[in-house]
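Recap from last week: sequence in, structure out.
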Amino acid sequence: MKKIVLIGGGGLARILLDLIRTFTEYEIVGILDSQLKVGQVIQGVSVLGSDDLLSKLYASDVRNACVAVGGIKADNNRKMLYEKARHIGFAMPSLIHPQAIISKGSEIREGVCIMAGAIIQTGSSIGENVLIYSGAIVEHECQIRKNSHICPGSILSGGCIIGENSYIGAGATVIQGIKIGNNVTVGAGSVVISDLSDGVTVKGVPAK
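Predicted structure tokens:
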């Protein structure tokens, strides 16, 4: 079995523990989270310490890692942890729930996490370290660039582009052909009807 460690021990980690256990190829060796007590057990898996242990784990023949850190807005936390693990040499497998619907005509990069009930339609491209939560819909020919976070029930209509490190809140809708920049936060339930430049935060119907 391939040994894998989770970086992060919050709610997302609990979802990913369940997801990883649907596969037979991984042995979960532990959780890394500086905010939790060493030895604490989460769904049968022990907290080993902080992400400072990554190099030691790699040296002990753990070769796979998963970023199990979500967020409530656009930030660089997932990016920094992903890049730290990759720099050490870890493989970052994509973890796709068997009840997600993924078109064979879509492209899924390394380190992507896709939860139950998500739908990815043909021609779409999902970049490295992207997180797509339960029930999200990514329609045809969308591009979601690396480290972005797509929350539960959000809808990306056809041909949308979501920039790097951006956050689409729960139940938000992005209409067809919209381009959203890097480091953008779209509030829950918002409807985006025009392009968004880098670094903005929007909310409402329409989002502004």
